[in-house]
Design brief:
By secondary structure, the protein is mostly helical. It is built from 3 helices and no strands. The mean pLDDT is 84.
């Protein structure tokens, strides 16, 4: 099971990143539609959309860095045990 999850890590990371993106854009659209044309509502909605995009990218970046560190560590450990 552990190996299966590690092999599917890319799909899981992209899926959770997409959820972050959808949540950010959806909340931004809700803010824009509820407040209307008020400048505070416009700025808040646009910031919510941008933050959703930024959090999605940041989440994927951090997760892929952790996966790469784990793969490198596994590869190095396998090479060292072969000596």
């Amino acid at each position: 099971m552990k190996s299966f999850l590690f092999d599917m890590a890319d799909v899981i990371i992209y899926g959770t990143g997409a959820l972050w993106l959808i949540t950010g854009v959806w909340s931004g659209i809700q803010i824009l539609s509820n407040i209307g044309e008020a400048s505070v509502g416009l700025i808040s909605g646009i910031l919510a959309i941008l933050l959703g995009i930024m959090f999605s990218a940041l989440h994927c970046l951090i997760c892929f860095i952790l996966v790469d560190i784990r793969r490198y560590t596994r590869h190095t450990a396998q090479k060292m045990s072969g000596r």
